[in-house]
């Protein structure tokens, strides 16, 4: 697909990026921006949210003011993630932020519904966290009708996780000089 190419139905190409605010999703936003520029596409950063306790919990005990507060928090989190990713500067492509109610995987697959959309997702959390929660990239790769690009977690995330683990176990933390030498 070339820079300004449009779909046969006249719609602008889209790059849909799953956003959570994690370092992995910020890396996905940067990669999604690069892909949107390359394709001449719109960038759709998407944050999916659910009511506390999930949809079934909300149906058992509805509370509209709480629901409104959770939605507002999701909108705020998406805008904070965009500010963190782009530093308040214009990304240079048309940006269409979307906050959607629903589980992340199904919501992203629902939005990235055209065969020539591109769905970009970050990897976050360690192996244990991925085992405990359903993998959004895995779900999307199996169900999406468009290509799915999974961006690896930034190296900084691995370093921070290792430091956090050492601190939690009360192990000595390496000096900054040792950390820099280990990276070389």
Automatic annotation (TrEMBL):
InterPro entries: Universal_stress_UspA, UspA. CDD domains: USP-like. Residues 14-152 form the UspA domain. It comes from the Bacteria. Belongs to the universal stress protein A family. This is Universal stress protein. It comes from Streptomyces sp. Y1. The lineage of its organism: Bacteria, Bacillati, Actinomycetota, Actinomycetes, Kitasatosporales.
